[in-house]
Write a structure and sequence with these properties.
This protein is α+β, with helices and mostly antiparallel strands. 25% of the residues lie in helices and 29% in strands. Helix 2 runs antiparallel to helix 6 and helix 2 crosses helix 11. The radius of gyration is 30 Å and the shape is elongated. The structure holds one RNA strand.
RNA sequence: CGGGGUAUAGCGCAGCUUGGUAGCGCGCCUCGUUCGGGACGAGGAGGUCGGGAGUUCGAAUCUCCCUACCCCGACCA
């Protein structure tokens, strides 16, 4: 039986909802796929549910093909596992917390690493049981500070999350690759353009992690790519260090007065005026060393000041800093911080002063000093002398000052060289639709997931976690597959395969629509039939275009000539087709 | 959490400056006409004007407080 527009639970809207900003959000609401219930929380109507079911079906097929088995955990979970892993506190305000009648703590799970790990621990204890890959499709809850763009970033969202369990790193690598391959197939089938980028492994340390991003101007992630194939989230870009320079024969540092040089620009102007380079080339901002004071707030609340030295033509990228210093939070130092550290002369901070080392573990302040990777041994800098209105020229790294380490947190710019030498980087925005991650033993360690190996020794299992944002994907597809009249779904996820529009006052257009629907269904197609009488053609056409079934068959005025009209929404074509050929024509379009 | 904005019928909005008993379009219901691009006529249903307090003879409109939501940033599949 076809689904009839006369009965379908839907109301299309003529105007854009006032609270929608991005096109996918407007269209999904206007076409009657979803309705907002609360900020970032949506109800799914029949059309939306059908799309969601088809997306999920594709994911399930490819997960099974990759050897993963489906399970299902509750969204509502007790506090304990998250307490053990530390996330009860780490997740902070983003966690939806609630209490049962006995006042025990519960949460709406933001992700399920803990309970997956614990269930495997419960059931398995031998290397013979591994490798194992299990997944679920489940709603997740995160109390986002700011939900955005409809279902693109909600507080409730559906996610496919998979976890792999292996006895050793080699096994993890194989499991990871299998999942990565599956993701490529899934996104290809969904009709999503994507790039795979190196992701920030964050506090987990050296683990391999990649994100699948759908390039989009409304994306919240910035990534880079090079002509030679390098691609990374901007947070994960590593800056290549130039070769060290011999310090032999470099002139000694010169301290000079530098009144009224509150900015890098004014400093550069003053230096060019009073201390021009001997080779006649002008000094630039890149010749200065800017020392930025940051406050790190460590888990538990300890506040630590660090100073980061970077070329004066660069800014600190706070996102990159968060990634580099995680799990600590990063913020610019406040007046209060400066007050507590009188050794720092604001505006003239530098690692060195005529009195000796200012920054670094061995210095008078003891403040940790980290430098940009470009600040290699032998490079010479103009920087603050740590005395009021005085700078120093020719301060040489590794000769005049020593850093405690590297901090790769300067902003990444278009034109920067890729770390693998594959050419200049370009920047773009993307929406994160999937993430594959070699977790390693982080969760297995804290939750005690160990198995006996073939020598009878207990070994900790190594894990991977792999996520796909199911509801987010629907927004991404809607964003990419539309025209100025409405949605245009890829065939693989469309709510119906064919939309038949019967229009006209002649009863025959309705009986013929019914008959055609039956014909298409015999060919295995899901059919939406617009059988509404007393609805004008314009309304029916408008609804069909808004709803976005990719193939529309119009049974109308052409019927007296034995002709119907076939719309191919994706191609933008409309062709008159003899009634006897329409089934084959549609089948041809669908293959 | 910082900045900006909005809140009046199911949806989109006007009315507020200059207080006087609530309005437009769409949608919805009835009847008739119409039927290939969001038709037409006639009739109708539907609103504690976000909440509270105040000023006033009288408040959607003026004052104060609160709340919710949206957008931009900070934060995250």
């Amino acid at each position: 039986m076809p689904t009839r527009m006369s009965h379908l639970f839907v109301r299309t809207l003529r105007e854009d909802p006032a609270d929608a900003e991005v096109e996918s959000h407007k269209l999904l609401v206007r076409a009657g796929y979803v309705r907002r219930q609360a900020p970032g929380i949506f109800a799914w109507l029949p059309l939306g549910l059908r799309v969601k079911a088809r997306v999920e079906a594709i994911i399930r097929e490819e997960m099974e093909r990759a050897g993963s088995q489906e399970v299902h955990f509750p969204a509502l979970l007790p506090r304990e596992p998250y307490e053990i892993s530390g996330r009860w506190t780490e997740y902070g305000d983003n966690l939806f917390r609630l209490h049962d009648r006995k006042d025990a703590d519960y949460l709406l799970a933001p992700t399920h690493e803990e309970v997956f790990t614990l269930l495997v621990k419960d059931l398995y204890n031998s290397y013979k049981d591994l490798p194992l890959s299990i997944y679920q499709i489940q709603d997740k809850y995160r109390d986002e500070a700011r939900p955005r763009a409809g279902i693109l970033r909600g507080r409730e969202f559906t996610m496919k999350d998979a976890y792999s369990f292996d006895i050793d790193d080699e096994g993890l690598g194989i499991s990871y690759q299998a999942m990565r391959d599956a993701y490529e197939r899934i996104f290809a089938r969904l009709g999503i353009e994507f790039v795979i980028v190196k992701a920030d492994a964050g506090a987990m340390g050296g683990s391999r992690s990649e994100e699948f991003l759908a390039p989009s101007p409304i994306g919240e992630d910035t990534f880079v790519r090079s002509p030679g194939g390098y691609a990374a989230n901007v947070e994960a870009v590593t800056t290549p260090a130039p070769p060290a320079i011999s310090i032999e024969g470099l002139p000694a540092p010169v301290v000079f007065d530098s009144p009224n040089t509150p900015t890098i620009d004014t400093l550069v102007a003053l230096v060019n005026d009073r201390h021009p380079r001997e080779d006649g080339i002008a000094w630039t901002a890149g010749d200065t060393l800017k020392n930025v004071v940051l406050a790190l707030i460590h888990p538990g609340g300890r506040r630590e000041l660090v100073v980061v030295g970077l070329p004066g033509d660069r800014e600190v990228d706070l996102k990159r800093a968060e990634a580099a210093f995680g799990p600590a939070e990063v913020e610019p130092a406040t007046e209060l911080d400066f007050a507590k550290h009188p050794g720092l002369v604001k505006g003239y901070i530098g690692p060195w002063s005529p009195a000796g080392a200012v920054l670094g573990a061995e210095s008078v302040t003891g403040i940790r000093y980290l430098v940009d990777p470009r600040v290699v041994a032998g490079t010479s800098w103009i920087t603050g002398a740590n005395e009021n209105e005085r700078h120093v020229l020719g301060l040489v790294a590794e000769r005049d000052f020593v850093a405690d380490g590297i901090a790769d947190i300067a902003d990444v710019r278009a034109g920067d060289e890729a770390p693998d030498g594959s050419g200049p980087l370009e920047l773009a925005r993307g929406i994160e639709i999937g993430h594959v991650f070699q977790l390693g033993r982080k969760y297995a360690d804290v939750l005690g997931l160990k198995v006996l190996d073939e020598n009878g020794k207990l070994v900790t299992v190594t894990m991977g976690s792999y996520g796909i944002g199911v509801t987010r994907i629907i927004a991404v597809i809607a964003e990419a597959h539309r025209d100025d009249r409405g949605l245009v779904w890829p065939q693989s996820v469309a709510p119906f395969d064919i939309h038949i529009v019967s229009t006209g006052k002649d009863e025959q257009v309705y009986s013929e629509g019914e008959r055609l629907a039956g014909e298409f269904e015999k060919r295995g197609c899901d059919v939406l039939l617009d059988d509404r009488v007393k609805v004008s053609p314009g309304v029916k056409f408008g609804d069909a275009e808004l709803i976005g079934v990719p193939i529309v068959v119009v049974v109308g005025k052409g019927l007296v000539d034995g002709v119907v009209e076939l719309w191919d929404r994706a191609a933008g074509t409309r062709n008159r087709v003899p009634l006897g050929e329409i089934v084959d024509a549609v089948v041809a379009l669908r293959s």
